């Protein structure tokens, strides 16, 4: 860390101190550790460059050497003190920020909302990694004048996130939440187009109605739900989702445990007939051993209890492309593909991909995946295996015009 900061300090000092006043840096990206006296050297130079108009946009990441699991509450509070001191000493930095990334910060004693939305008037992209307001506090965002377009939360322990007003927000991603109930709600977000929710449900997670989260959204066109190989944390529903899914163009369901039945996905497609791309990713990682400790944390993996027959839309599906990553000719996957092909009259392409590589899985297996698993759990490699898979899929559909593509 010291070596990195010493090198960066020298470089940025030389660069900004000698930069010609008649030129302008359109976008300056800095990644800092606020340690020792380095910030006292870099801060004034960057601040002066901003004040003189030499820097238009600043992309700042204030990083920490500790992993989230290694951070105590006091560590996070101390990091917040350091960040606050830096911003207090160099307020010009806040005024020029268009992107900000913070790591391991607890804002329990600071007004997070004021710093991010009242002071950072140009902020468009905010990424928070292991940041919170202390004690699973809820965080409500009421910022009608904010220019924020992208909000990313990673391992942020919030009791709940309530986006009351962010009129420019286009994309929100939340990776891992702690709260057992509905983690998120929206009010005024007219520009929200992409929502990405990633979480492996622990035993405390009770699940929630997706329609309640999306109730006040009107423009979402891309929805990504990633369950990280654990239980499905959205509760069964159908028609209730039609309004929120009205403009949905791409639906992605990732981290689906390999042994789960998959027909429940048809309910989501029925509620979103305007979807043109349907993308699923099957989760199978031998590196995650199903020990008693894992079961105590995440519980048993149970098949989704959705009833497909309970809801059927009368609208024609616009689905054109169906993608599966982690494909194998298992009964669950073959049944889902046939069901989609029979229902989607506009379907033109099915893309079948092998599993994404995982170094940990490969390390624990002396043999390749294809030799460790039964044939029905392995991606069809050769031309003969792939032709057999296609024949099985179109056997009862002689007029099928769907192109089936295998991508290793």
TrEMBL record:
InterPro entries: LRR_At1g61320_AtMIF1, LRR_dom_sf
Alphabetical list of PANTHER family matching this protein: F-BOX DOMAIN-CONTAINING PROTEIN, OS07G0645701 PROTEIN
Protein name: At1g61320/AtMIF1 LRR domain-containing protein
Pfam family, one: LRR_At1g61320_AtMIF1
Gene3D superfamilies: Ribonuclease Inhibitor (3.80.10.10)
At1g61320/AtMIF1 LRR domain boundaries: 93-370
């Amino acid at each position: 860390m010291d070596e990195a900061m010493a090198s960066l300090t020298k470089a940025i000092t030389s660069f900004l101190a000698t930069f010609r006043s008649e030129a302008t840096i359109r976008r300056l990206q800095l990644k800092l550790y606020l340690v020792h006296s380095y910030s006292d050297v870099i801060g004034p130079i960057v601040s002066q460059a901003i004040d003189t108009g030499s820097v238009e946009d600043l992309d700042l990441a204030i990083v920490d050497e500790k992993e989230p699991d290694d951070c105590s509450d006091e560590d996070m509070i101390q990091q917040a003190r350091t960040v606050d001191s830096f911003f207090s000493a160099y307020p010009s930095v806040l005024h020029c920020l268009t992107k900000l990334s913070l790591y391991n910060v607890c804002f329990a004693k600071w007004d997070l909302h004021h710093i991010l939305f009242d002071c950072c008037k140009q902020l468009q992209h905010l990424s928070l990694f292991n940041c919170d307001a202390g004690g699973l506090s809820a965080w409500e965002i009421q910022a009608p004048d904010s220019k924020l377009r992208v909000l990313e939360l990673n391992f942020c322990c919030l009791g709940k996130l309530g986006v009351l007003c962010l009129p420019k927000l286009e994309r929100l991603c939340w990776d891992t939440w702690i709260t057992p109930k509905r983690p998120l709600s929206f009010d005024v977000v007219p520009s929200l187009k992409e929502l990405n929710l990633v979480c492996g449900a622990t035993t405390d997670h009770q699940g929630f109605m997706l329609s309640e989260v999306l109730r006040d959204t009107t423009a979402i066109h891309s929805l990504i739900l990633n369950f990280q190989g654990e239980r499905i944390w959205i509760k069964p529903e159908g028609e209730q989702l039609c309004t929120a899914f009205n403009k949905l163009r791409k639906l992605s369901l990732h981290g689906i445990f390999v042994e789960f039945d998959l027909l429940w996905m048809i309910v989501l497609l029925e509620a979103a007939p305007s979807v043109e791309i349907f993308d699923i990713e099957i989760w199978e990682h031998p590196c995650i051993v199903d020990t008693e400790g894992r079961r105590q944390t995440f519980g048993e993996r149970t098949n989704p209890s959705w009833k497909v027959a309970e809801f059927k839309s009368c609208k024609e599906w616009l689905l054109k492309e169906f993608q599966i990553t982690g494909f194998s000719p298992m009964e669950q996957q073959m049944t889902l593909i046939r069901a989609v092909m029979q229902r989607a009259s506009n379907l033109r392409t099915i893309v079948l991909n092998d599993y994404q590589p995982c170094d940990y899985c490969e390390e624990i297996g002396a043999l390749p995946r294809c030799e460790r698993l039964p044939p029905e759990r392995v991606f069809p490699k050769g031309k003969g295996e792939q032709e057999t898979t296609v024949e099985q899929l179109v056997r009862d559909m002689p007029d099928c015009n769907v192109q089936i593509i295998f991508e290793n």
